[in-house]
Automatic annotation (TrEMBL):
<keyword id="KW-0269">Exonuclease</keyword>
<dbReference type="InterPro" id="IPR011604">
    <property type="entry name" value="PDDEXK-like_dom_sf"/>
</dbReference>
<keyword id="KW-0540">Nuclease</keyword>
<keyword id="KW-0378">Hydrolase</keyword>
<dbReference type="InterPro" id="IPR022765">
    <property type="entry name" value="Dna2/Cas4_DUF83"/>
</dbReference>
<feature type="domain" description="DUF83">
    <location>
        <begin position="11"/>
        <end position="165"/>
    </location>
</feature>
<dbReference type="GO" id="GO:0004527">
    <property type="term" value="F:exonuclease activity"/>
</dbReference>
<protein>
    <submittedName>
        <fullName>CRISPR-associated exonuclease, Cas4 family</fullName>
    </submittedName>
</protein>
<dbReference type="Pfam" id="PF01930">
    <property type="entry name" value="Cas_Cas4"/>
</dbReference>
């Protein structure tokens, strides 16, 4: 078992929870096939070559792409379509900063491939939602067994697909 099983909940945990709870459970136990994923490599390359004048904020359990004056949290996504999942991940980063005493204003998700941004509100309701999502992630990680597989068509492009569907 890795430290992730007992440690803090980061952005990857939230992303995996929303994509597939089974993926989160496996990740928390050290299974990491995403290192061989072309999609992950593309996202990392995009992150490294876009908005190069900013610096990551490493919180240990999470790495925020950058924070600007006034405590605005920024996240860059390689997706060509905005997703509510991206906003949930940014709200989680806002929660982590708020716990450190930062008076977070809001968040912004950047989509450089489509040249769009999406504003993410940060208020009491957003904080409550972020806390609930974090608890759900903890519950999934603490479970004795992984969540059931998603329908196979929802696993297209997932680096965990071979693990979940490889023996059939």
């Amino acid at each position: 078992m890795t430290d992730d099983h007992d440690g803090g909940i980061g952005g990857v945990h939230i992303k995996y929870l929303l994509h597939c709870p089974r993926q989160l459970w496996l990740y928390a136990r050290g299974y990491r096939p995403e290192q061989r994923s072309d999609a992950v490599a593309f996202g990392e390359a995009l992150d490294d070559t876009t908005y190069t004048r900013r610096r990551d904020i490493d919180l240990g359990e999470a790495k925020i792409d950058w924070v600007t004056t006034g405590a605005v949290v920024h996240e860059t996504k390689s997706s060509r379509a905005p997703s509510p999942q991206h906003e949930v991940q940014v709200r989680h980063y806002c929660l982590l900063l708020a716990r450190l005493g930062v008076n977070v204003a809001r968040g912004v998700v950047h989509y450089p491939l489509i040249r769009r941004t999406s504003e993410v509100a940060w208020n009491a309701a957003a904080r409550a939602e972020a806390e609930k999502t974090e608890q759900t992630a903890r519950d999934v990680i603490a479970a004795d067994r992984p969540a059931p597989r998603l329908p196979r068509d929802r696993c297209r492009g997932c680096s965990y697909r071979d693990y979940c569907w490889g023996d059939l």
